[in-house]
Each structure stands twice: as structure tokens, then as C-alpha cells.
Design goal:
Number of strands: 15
Distance between the termini: 51 Å
Number of domains: 2
Mean pLDDT: 76
Strand content: 35-45%
Structural class: alpha+beta
Shape: elongated
Helix content: 25-40%
Number of helices: 7
Low-confidence stretches: 1-8, 11-33, 219-230, 293-314, 316-321
Order of helices and strands: HEEEEEHHHHHHEEEEEEEEEE
Largest sheet: 6 strands, antiparallel, barrel
Length: 424
């Protein structure tokens, strides 16, 4: 059922992106967010010297609350020296971890340490066969939206050139093609709705999606018949599978995991050292302006007066007309978030609040053993730069491996402290 709501919401986004002020007057509050930004910090410093039979388990961070989480298990017989320093703030975790292992000559169980970092940052996603068709149809200016554009041209609100420019921004998506970040965030967000126990705002969204679902099911067969004709039956079946929730729109490319494990045979040594920081600030939604192109809707050219009731989701443009400069859909646009800004519709930009913690992962890691087993697993990608890294290896014997990795998706906001030596 959730897949159905995901599909329908993406249609709603497209419609709202054209006629948003119309719908805003009916739903002025359900996009507001009561989330309280995280404050304060947490640190943990530890120094271990252990000799004997060891069973050690640790977790630092909690996925999206701290940008990533570290899970670690250390077991076996022998001597262990370990130091670890952890610092956490909202959306960010920094860890410095060093481990030296010596398995006892008469060990029943070899000393082994496994360390797994899981990132909150969403992976790059690819369109499924059905999802590519669905996204293309939603992205194209259908007869309904084309008629709306024609009305705006006839009324003198926009020029023919502007209407053509709008149409050019709706591309055709391909199976296994990269999913743009905006699509991915909407897909991930609505996948998390508990449809059995929705909040008030989620219930309002579901009602709105159901209305547009009926419109799409009634309308798109005509569009497909015009565009693909002889393939109508096959193509419509693909579309129907998505709308009815029988097919996914996207597939995640990676699991966003960085893992390493190393063990030492009896009488041998092993080490694992890692220094990393990961950050992921929340998504603040989509910013819709109430000026320029959007002021021409509804077709009579009026802008609903109720837009001045948007409260924390709106920002005033000081035009003394009671209309905010922008309002936010699917988020709050608070100072600790990033958002998609449609001020230059149909193009959009990515904007950040001054307290946005960033979206990145940087690590330096080394593992070694004089005799034992070394394991590494990396599965990370980025929808922002389309980068992809996969590594899966096991070495039995001696090994010494050093790696450095950096993934910079979005920089921190202007008020986030940088390194002390960055002066200007």
C-alpha cells in the first residue's frame, strides 16, 4: 500500500509545483513541522587494556540522528589495547579509534574485531523499468498541464518562449538511469509513512494523493494512446503496476556501508585504526515562491489571501501585501536544514540554512595482521555526484591495508564552525 502512496505523491508534487498557491489556501498547516532542532553535544573517551577471554560490543551514534552509526564487536582470547574518542552533535559523529590485538598462543578462539559504519546519507538510486515510464509520464507536460500553460499564454501571464522553456525541463527517464535527488527524497520520505497510524498531516497528504490517483488513472490512458499507440496495452500495464503498488519506482544502488574486520592467529598480532567523521543534516522540503511565475495562478491571476497564515513555514517578502515570499512543502525550511528552492522555476537550486551540519563522510583507515583473516566490505554511492564505490574482499594470511575516502555531498551552512586554520 505504501508504494501506491509514493507513486501518487510524486504526481501531487508535479501538480503542486505548477499550481501550489491554489492548494495552499486549503491546506495551510499540514506541511508544518514541529521538530525541535538538536542542541548540545555528547563525548566519550575510553582507554582499554584487556588480557583474557574478551567479549566486547559497542555502538556509537544512531544512524540519522548523528549522521551515521558505528557498531563494533571484539571477541577472542588474548591481549587487547584499545583507545577510542567519540564526539556527537545533532547530525554529526566524529570517531578516532585504535586497536592492537595479540592472540594468546594457546587461544581457544582467535581475537577478532569487526567494525561497521552505516551512513544516513541516502544512496544513489536507479529507476526500475516501470518507474522509468512512470517518471517520464509524470515529468512530461500532459494535456491537462499543457492546457494550463496555454491559458497562461492566452492571458498574457507568460510568453510562448517561457511556456516552451517549462516543457523542456521535463525529460524522459530511462530504466537503470540515475534518479535525481529530488525524486529520491520524496520516494524515501513517503515510504516511511505508517499508513495504519498516520499523523494528521500525513492523513491530509494521503487524501490529496487519493484524489490525484483517480485523476491519473482516468487521464493517463489517453496520453499513452497518443504517444505510444500500438504499445498501449503493455505500457499502460507497467504504469498500472506502479500506481497500484505492485512495482517499485526506484531501486537503491548501495547499502551505504563501510566495514572492516581483522583477526590474528594464535601468537600473532592484528591492528585496526580508523579516524572518521560523518554528517547528515535533515531535509527541509521544497520552497515554493509566491512571486513571479507562481503569482499567475490560479488562472484569474489572484493569489490566495490565506497564504499569510503559513506561520513558520513561510518567509515574508516585506511587500506589505500580506503574502509571504515563499512557503515550504514536505518540510519546514528551518536553519539546520537544506531544501530545494523553486524560485527559478522550472529549474531549482539546493539551498542551506546557516546551521545546516552538512552531508559528507570522510575516513582514514588501516588494518593489518601478521597472520590471520582480513575482511573488508564497502558499498557506498551518492545521488549528488553519482559516485559509486564497492569493495568486497577476504585475505587469509598476512595483510596490511591503508585507505582514505572522502564523499562531499553538501557543504555545511555558513554558521557551522570549520577547521581552526580556515580564516577566510
Amino acid at each position: 500500500m505504501k508504494k501506491t502512496f509514493v507513486a501518487l505523491l510524486l504526481v501531487v508534487l508535479f501538480v503542486l509545483s505548477i499550481a501550489s498557491p491554489v492548494f495552499a489556501q486549503f491546506f495551510p498547516v499540514f506541511f508544518e513541522d514541529t521538530r525541535v532542532p538538536a542542541t548540545g553535544e555528547m563525548t566519550h573517551s575510553s582507554d582499554y587494556e584487556m588480557d583474557g577471554r574478551i567479549d566486547y560490543r559497542k555502538q556509537a551514534g544512531h544512524i540519522c540522528n548523528t549522521g551515521a552509526e558505528l557498531r563494533q564487536v571484539l571477541t577472542g582470547d588474548g591481549l587487547v589495547n584499545k583507545t577510542m574518542n567519540i564526539h556527537m552533535v545533532g547530525g554529526k559523529i566524529t570517531v578516532d579509534d585504535n586497536n592492537e590485538l595479540v592472540t594468546a598462543p594457546d587461544a581457544v578462539s582467535n581475537l577478532e574485531i569487526i567494525s561497521v559504519i552505516e551512513l544516513c546519507a541516502p544512496p544513489k538510486s536507479l529507476f526500475t523499468e516501470e518507474g522509468a515510464l512512470y517518471a517520464s509520464l509524470v515529468a512530461m507536460v500532459s494535456e491537462l498541464f499543457f492546457d494550463m500553460l496555454q491559458e497562461q499564454v492566452s492571458a498574457g501571464n507568460i510568453t510562448v518562449a517561457e511556456a516552451n522553456e517549462i516543457m523542456l525541463h521535463f525529460p524522459k527517464y530511462l530504466e537503470d538511469g540515475a534518479v535525481p535527488p529530488l525524486w529520491g527524497y520524496l520516494d524515501n520520505m513517503i515510504s516511511g509513512i505508517d499508513t495504519d497510524h498516520p499523523t494528521f498531516s500525513e492523513e491530509m497528504l494521503l487524501h490529496l494523493m487519493a484524489i490525484f490517483g483517480a485523476i491519473i488513472l482516468d487521464y493517463f490512458p489517453v496520453t499513452i494512446a497518443r504517444d505510444v499507440n500500438e504499445e498501449l496495452t503493455e505500457e499502460f500495464e507497467k504504469l498500472l503496476r506502479v500506481i497500484e503498488g505492485r512495482a517499485d519506482i526506484t531501486d537503491p544502488l548501495t547499502k551505504q556501508i563501510w566495514a572492516a574486520g581483522v583477526s590474528a592467529d594464535p601468537g600473532h598480532t592484528a591492528t585496526l585504526s580508523q579516524d572518521f567523521e560523518a554528517a547528515y543534516g535533515p531535509w527541509g522540503g521544497i520552497s515554493i515562491p509566491t512571486s513571479g511565475f507562481f503569482r499567475s495562478f490560479p488562472p484569474n491571476g489572484g493569489v490566495p489571501e490565506m497564504l499569510n497564515d503559513f506561520g513558520p513555514t513561510a518567509r515574508s517578502n516585506n511587500l506589505n501585501d500580506g503574502i509571504p515570499e515563499e512557503f515550504f512543502l514536505f518540510g519546514d525550511g528551518l536553519d539546520d536544514t537544506f531544501w530545494f528552492d523553486f524560485a527559478d522555476y522550472p529549474a531549482y537550486t539546493v539551498e542551506k540554512g546557516p546551521d545546516y551540519v552538512g552531508n559528507y563522510f570522510n575516513i582514514e583507515q588501516s588494518v593489518s595482521t601478521t597472520q590471520g583473516v582480513t575482511k573488508r566490505y564497502i558499498d557506498i554511492s551518492s545521488p549528488w555526484n553519482h559516485g559509486y564505490l564497492m569493495e568486497d574482499m577476504t585475505v587469509t594470511g598476512a595483510a596490511e591495508i591503508s585507505e582514505a575516502f572522502s564523499m562531499e555531498n553538501l557543504e555545511p551552512g555558513s554558521d557551522i564552525p570549520t577547521n581552526w586554520w580556515v580564516l577566510f
